[in-house]
Backbone:
C-alpha cells in the first residue's frame, strides 16, 4: 500500500486538484493553487544536489573499475568539487568563479555545438541525392530558405526571398502546425493515462 | 575514376573547405548589402511602440550554444529599450544565459548610463520550472525568493517595488530568446494575455505559425535578422560582420551538394554502362 | 595577441574542442570533462544562492513560515534513491506529487495554444493561401493520425499520402536550411572570438 498504491493515489489527487484549480477560478481566488505552486517549487528544488551526487557516483565507478578515460573522471571530480565549494562559499558573482565560468563553459559548450556545422556539411554532401520527387522538394526548399537568409539571395533574384517567405508561411507553417497538433494529441493521451491512474511507470 | 573519387571524398577535405570559407570573410568582410525584412521591421516597430516607463521582461531562454546568434540581438534590444526609458527585468527559463549575459548587459548599461536597480534588474535563473513561474505570476517576490542574481534583496531595488506580479498589468511585453524547451510555450499557456515577442535560434522556421495565430506579436530569428536589427538600431555590428561569412558558407554547402549529385549521377551512369 | 589569462584559457579551450573535427584527442577530452564538472557545480551553486538559501534564511527562519518545512522534508526524500533499494521507494512520494502537479496543469492549460491555432486556421478565407494552409494542415494531420490498413490499395489515399509526404519534405527542407544557418552562426561566433578578441586580427 505505502510503496505503490498511495503514491499512485497521490498523483491522481494532486492532478485533480490542480486541474480543477486551473479551470475553476473560484479555487484560484481561494489561493489554493498558489500554495500548491509554492510547495511544489520548494519540494522540487530540494533535489538540488541529486544531479551532482549521481555524477560523482558514475565517475567514482569509472575510476574504481579503471574504465576508458578514467583519469579524466578524476579531473572532473576535482573540478566539480572545487567549483561547488568556491561557488557555495563565495557566491556565483565571485570574480574568480565568474571569470573561470566565462572562460571555460561558454567557449567549450559553444565550440562543441559548432563542430556540428562541419559534420552537417559532410552529411549533406553524402546524403542529399536527387533520387525522387521527395528529395528534390527537400533540396529545393532548403536551398531557397538558405539563400533567402543571406544577402546574396536578394542579389541573385528578388524572387528568392518572396518564394522563401511563401515556403515558410504556407506549407511550412501548415506542416509545423499539423505536426505539433499530432504531437499534442499523443502527449495529451499519455498525460490523460497518468491522470486516470492507468500509467504508473513514473513510480517504478 | 575522377568522379568516383569525388563521390568518396574524404570528409576532412570538406571540413577544410568549410572552415576556410567561413574564416576568410570574417577577416576580410565582403560588404554585401543588407535588406531589412518585414519580420525585423515589425519587431523593431513593436519595440518602438512600447510606452516609456513601462516594464518589459526579457526571458533569456538559451545557453552558451546560442550566444553567437541569440546574444547578438539581446544587446541591441536591451540598449534600445533602455534608451527609450523602458524598464527591463531580465530573467530566464534556462540557467545559463542570465548568468553569462550579465557582464555584457552591465557594459551596455554603464555606457548608456542605465542604473541597476532603477532602470533594470537581472533576477537570474530561478529553478523549479512551471511551479516557479506560476508562483511568480501570483507573487513575483515569493517566486523569485526575493533576491536578484547578485543576491541583492528586492527591497533594496526601487524597480522591483513596481513588480509584484507577473501579469499584463505589470509588464507591457515579454521578449523571449528561445533555443528550445522550456520556451515560448510557458508564456502561451500560462500568460497568454501578456504580449509576447520572440527571437528564435536558427531562423523562424515553423514558428511563423504563432505569428499567424497572434500568439506571438512579432518575431525574428537567425543571424540575418539579428544583423538587420543591428542596422535598424544603429548599434554594434557583430551579426552584420558575420553575415558575409555565412553567405560564403551557404554557397560552399550548396556547391558541395551540387557537386556530389553530379558525381553520383555520372558515376551511376558509368557503372550501369559497365 | 591578447595575453589575458582568461582569454588565453578560452582560446585554448576553443581550439582543443574544435580539433575534435580532425581527430579525437586528449585536449578535447580534458575540456569536455571540465565543462561537465563545471556545469554540474554551477547548477548547485545557482540553485542554492538564487532560491534555496534565501528561502530558508528569509521565508522559513526569517518570517517563521515553518509550514514550508513540510515540502522541504518531502523533497529530501528524493535522495533516498541513492541510499539503496530498501529505502529508494520513498522517492516515489515527491515524484508522485511532482508528476500529478505537472499532469494537472498540462491538462488544464496545454489545450489553450492548440485551440488558438485551430481557430486561426478558420479565421480568414480571403486569399487562396488560406485554403492551401487548411488543405495542407488536414492532409498532414491525417497522414500522422490515421494509419488505415492497406493504404496502398486505394488510389485516392495513395495520392493524398503522396501530397502529404511532399509537403512534409518541403518543411524538412525548410528546417534543414534554417538549422545549417544556426550551426554556422555558432562556429562564426567562435571564429570571431579567436580572430578578434584573441589574435586581434580584425
Residues:
Amino acid at each position: 500500500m505505502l510503496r505503490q498504491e498511495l503514491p499512485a493515489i497521490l498523483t491522481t489527487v494532486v492532478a485533480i486538484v490542480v486541474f480543477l484549480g486551473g479551470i475553476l477560478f473560484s479555487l484560484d481566488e481561494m489561493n489554493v493553487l498558489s500554495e500548491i505552486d509554492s510547495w511544489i517549487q520548494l519540494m522540487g528544488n530540494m533535489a538540488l544536489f541529486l544531479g551532482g551526487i549521481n555524477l560523482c557516483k558514475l565517475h567514482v565507478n569509472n575510476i574504481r573499475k579503471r574504465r576508458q578515460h578514467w583519469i579524466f573522471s578524476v579531473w572532473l571530480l576535482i573540478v566539480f568539487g572545487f567549483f561547488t565549494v568556491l561557488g557555495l562559499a563565495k557566491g556565483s558573482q565571485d570574480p574568480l568563479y565568474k571569470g573561470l565560468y566565462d572562460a571555460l563553459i561558454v567557449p567549450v559548450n559553444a565550440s562543441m555545438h559548432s563542430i556540428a556545422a562541419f559534420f552537417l556539411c559532410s552529411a549533406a554532401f553524402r546524403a542529399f541525392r536527387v533520387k525522387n520527387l521527395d528529395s528534390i522538394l527537400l533540396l529545393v526548399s532548403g536551398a531557397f530558405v538558405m539563400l533567402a537568409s543571406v544577402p546574396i539571395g536578394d542579389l541573385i533574384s528578388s524572387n528568392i526571398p518572396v518564394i522563401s517567405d511563401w515556403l515558410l508561411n504556407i506549407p511550412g507553417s501548415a506542416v509545423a502546425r499539423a505536426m505539433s497538433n499530432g504531437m499534442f494529441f499523443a502527449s495529451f493521451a499519455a498525460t490523460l493515462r497518468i491522470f486516470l491512474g492507468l500509467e504508473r511507470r513514473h513510480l517504478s | 575514376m575522377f568522379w568516383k573519387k569525388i563521390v568518396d571524398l574524404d570528409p576532412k577535405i570538406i571540413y577544410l573547405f568549410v572552415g576556410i570559407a567561413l574564416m576568410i570573410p570574417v577577416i576580410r568582410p565582403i560588404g554585401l548589402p543588407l535588406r531589412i525584412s518585414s519580420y525585423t521591421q515589425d519587431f523593431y516597430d513593436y519595440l518602438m511602440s512600447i510606452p516609456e516607463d513601462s516594464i518589459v521582461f526579457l526571458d533569456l531562454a538559451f545557453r552558451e550554444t546560442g550566444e553567437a546568434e541569440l546574444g547578438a540581438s539581446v544587446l541591441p534590444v536591451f540598449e534600445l529599450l533602455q534608451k527609450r526609458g523602458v524598464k527591463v527585468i531580465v530573467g530566464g527559463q534556462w540557467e545559463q544565459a542570465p548568468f553569462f549575459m550579465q557582464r555584457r548587459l552591465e557594459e551596455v548599461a554603464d555606457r548608456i548610463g542605465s542604473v541597476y536597480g532603477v532602470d533594470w534588474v537581472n533576477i537570474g535563473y530561478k529553478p523549479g520550472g512551471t511551479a516557479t513561474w506560476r508562483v511568480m505570476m501570483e507573487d513575483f517576490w515569493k517566486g523569485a525568493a526575493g533576491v536578484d542574481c547578485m543576491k541583492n534583496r528586492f527591497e533594496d531595488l526601487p524597480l522591483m517595488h513596481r513588480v509584484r506580479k507577473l501579469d499584463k498589468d505589470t509588464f507591457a511585453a515579454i521578449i523571449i530568446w528561445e533555443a528550445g524547451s522550456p520556451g515560448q510555450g510557458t508564456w502561451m499557456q500560462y500568460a497568454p494575455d501578456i504580449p509576447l515577442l520572440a527571437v528564435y535560434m536558427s531562423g523562424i522556421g515553423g514558428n511563423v505559425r504563432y505569428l499567424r495565430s497572434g500568439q506571438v506579436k512579432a518575431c525574428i530569428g537567425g543571424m540575418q535578422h539579428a544583423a538587420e536589427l543591428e542596422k535598424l538600431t544603429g548599434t554594434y555590428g557583430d551579426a552584420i560582420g558575420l553575415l558575409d561569412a555565412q553567405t560564403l558558407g551557404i554557397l560552399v554547402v550548396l556547391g558541395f551538394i551540387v557537386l556530389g549529385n553530379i558525381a553520383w549521377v555520372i558515376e551511376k551512369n558509368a557503372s550501369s554502362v559497365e | 595577441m591578447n595575453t589575458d589569462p582568461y582569454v588565453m584559457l578560452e582560446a585554448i579551450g576553443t581550439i582543443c574542442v574544435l580539433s575534435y573535427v580532425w581527430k579525437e584527442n586528449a585536449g578535447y577530452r580534458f575540456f569536455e570533462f571540465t565543462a561537465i564538472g563545471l556545469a554540474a557545480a554551477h547548477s548547485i551553486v545557482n540553485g542554492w544562492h538564487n532560491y534555496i538559501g534565501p528561502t530558508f534564511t528569509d521565508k522559513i527562519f526569517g518570517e517563521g513560515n515553518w509550514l514550508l518545512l513540510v515540502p522541504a522534508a518531502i523533497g529530501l526524500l528524493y535522495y533516498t534513491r541513492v541510499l539503496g533499494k530498501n529505502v529508494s521507494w520513498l522517492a516515489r512520494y515527491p515524484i508522485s506529487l511532482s508528476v500529478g502537479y505537472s499532469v494537472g496543469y498540462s491538462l488544464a492549460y496545454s489545450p489553450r495554444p492548440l485551440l488558438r491555432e485551430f481557430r486561426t486556421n478558420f479565421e480568414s478565407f480571403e486569399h487562396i493561401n488560406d485554403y492551401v494552409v487548411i488543405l495542407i494542415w488536414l492532409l498532414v494531420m491525417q497522414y500522422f493520425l490515421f494509419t488505415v490498413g492497406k493504404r496502398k490499395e486505394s488510389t485516392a489515399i495513395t495520392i493524398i499520402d503522396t501530397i502529404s509526404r511532399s509537403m512534409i519534405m518541403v518543411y524538412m527542407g525548410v528546417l534543414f536550411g534554417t538549422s545549417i544557418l544556426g550551426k554556422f552562426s555558432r562556429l562564426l561566433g567562435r571564429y570571431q572570438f579567436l580572430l578578434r578578441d584573441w589574435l586581434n586580427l580584425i
Chain B has two domains: 2-25+246-273, 38-241. Residues 38-241 of chain B form a domain with the Rossmann fold fold (CATH 3.40.50). Chain B touches chain C through 57 residues (CB under 8 Å).
